[in-house]
Amino acid sequence: LTAVACLDRSTLASASSVRSRFEIPASARQLIVVSSPTYDPANYLANLRTFVRSSSTAPWKRVSGPWQAETGRGHLLATRREGDGATPIGVFPIGPRIYGNFANPGGLHDIYHRLVCGDWWDEDPYSSQYNRFVHVPCGTTPRFASSSEALWTIYDVYAYFAVIDFNIDPTLGGPNAPGSGIFLHAWENGPTHGCVALGVPALLKVLRWLNPAEDPVIEIGTTAQVGSL
Description:
Helix content: 10-25%
Number of strands: 14
Distance between the termini: 34 Å
Order of helices and strands: HEEEEEEEEEEEEEHEH
Strand content: 25-35%
Structural class: mainly beta
Shape: globular
C-alpha cells in the first residue's frame, strides 16, 4: 500500500479540509498574506505582505511589505468561537466598504463611510443582525449593545478599517457562533481581539491599493500553510 492509502479516512478528510481552507478563488487578483511561523506568534506579531496577479494562472507578484501586523490575543485558530480573541486562519474576501473615525483619506477605490454616533458592529450571536454594521439613532442603546462595538467610540484603533469577511455569507450565530467583527484596522499597540492591525501609514497604503473590482482576499495562517509567496 502507498503511504496515502495507509492514512485513515479522518486524516484524509482533515488534510482535504486544510487544503480547501487555503484555496484562493480564481477570480482574486489582489491578495493580502498574513503569516507567522507558528499558531501563537511571538508578541502576537505576524508579517503582512500584498500581492497581485494578472489572471488565475499567472504567478503572484509582491506589491508591498512585509510589515509587522498585530494578531489576536487568542492566537491563530482554525476553529474559533465568539469572544475567544483568536484570529481565524484561512482565505477570506475583503468587504467593499472602508470605515473610519477619521476623514476620508482620499485615493480609495472602495466606498468610504466616516463613522458617526450610533454606528455599531452587532456582535450578539443571538441578534438578527449578527456580524453586521448597524446604525441606530445617536443616544439610543440597542438590544445588542452589551456584547457589541460602538465603533465611533473606538477612535484611534478604528481610524480606518476594512472588513474581513469571516462568518459572513452565511453568518452562523447561536451558542457556537464562530465570531464576528474581524477587521483590518489601525495599530493597537498590543494583541487584538481577533483582528489584524497595521500601523496607519502601512494600513492606508493597503486600503488605497484595495480594489473591489479585483476581488481582493486575505490569507491568514502559518508560514507553512500560506506557502512560498
